[in-house]
Design a protein that fits this description.
With 259 residues, the chain is an all-alpha fold. It contains twelve helices and no strands.
Length: 259
């Protein structure tokens, strides 16, 4: 693990005092990846091979569409479509052959009870088609990078008392990143401190989920006519922050104000 390379971004994200430092890092990397794939990477052979094979998910297609390089986006779409068509041809054949088998021997199969095999083939075809539209090079890159940043987060917690104190006073992390840290802690942290970290993580998370719950309740009570003169305080963006706490950042103000 190359912890030392990633500790500065982790510390910078922690100092933002947001709802989840890892969300801030992820969003910054996501925007960078979208710009990178529409920059010089468009013409890099290795990048194009990967994009042709995996493409982009719906979410990242939307991000790419919002960038200014529509030609670069179109070039990648064109070659990815050609590669997808090649993959679909063999799937078409499997689906058609299985369907013909069902139609031609349906009565016999129902009488003998042998109805599963061609239907299983079609199910497998559908699973493969679903994968074609769900695979994404940006998602894969983000997953790899965030595993590394989360490992650096754990390394800092274990070796830097200042970081440990900052985390204890922080707003915690989103629920998906809570799971990421918990899972990686068994791989990164020494066994003797594993329980200490999990205890600290749960304490911070419990406290901050309670805070969010109180803020969202306060938000709902603001719509009671009896409270129309009461200041909104910290709850004005409670819906956005509660959503981002549950799902990871997806709505509202950018988690990294420098972006």
């Amino acid at each position: 693990m190359r912890y030392h390379i990633d500790t500065i971004p982790v510390w910078d994200a922690m100092k933002l005092l947001g709802e989840c430092p890892l969300c801030a890092i992820r969003r910054k990397n996501e925007l960078y990846e979208a710009q990178r794939f529409l920059g010089g990477s468009v013409m890099e052979p290795d990048t194009r091979i990967t994009v042709n094979d995996k493409g982009f998910c719906a979410h990242h297609q939307v991000m790419l569409t919002k960038e200014s390089n529509r030609l670069g986006h179109a070039l990648m779409l064109h070659t990815h479509l050609k590669k997808t068509e090649e993959k679909l041809k063999s799937l078409y054949d499997k689906a058609l052959n299985a369907s013909k088998e069902i139609s031609s021997s349906g009565i016999v199969r129902r009488m003998t009870g042998k109805t599963g095999e061609p239907k299983d083939t079609i199910k497998g075809v559908c699973d493969n088609i679903d994968h074609l539209s769900e695979s994404c090079v940006i998602c894969d890159s983000l997953h790899e990078n965030m595993e590394r940043y989360a490992a650096s987060f754990l390394h800092l917690w274990n070796t830097d008392n200042e970081f440990k104190r900052a985390f204890e006073k922080s707003k915690g992390v989103c629920i998906p990143d809570f799971s990421l840290l918990l899972r990686l802690s068994t791989q990164v942290l020494p066994a003797k401190v594993q329980a200490d970290f999990v205890e600290a993580l749960i304490a911070v998370q419990t406290q901050n989920l309670s805070r969010i719950e109180e803020e969202i309740q306060f938000f709902t009570l603001q719509f009671d006519y009896r409270n129309h003169d009461r200041p909104w305080g910290e709850c004005k963006d409670a819906v956005e922050r509660a959503t981002n706490k549950l799902q990871g950042w997806c709505i509202g103000a950018e988690p990294n104000p420098k972006i």
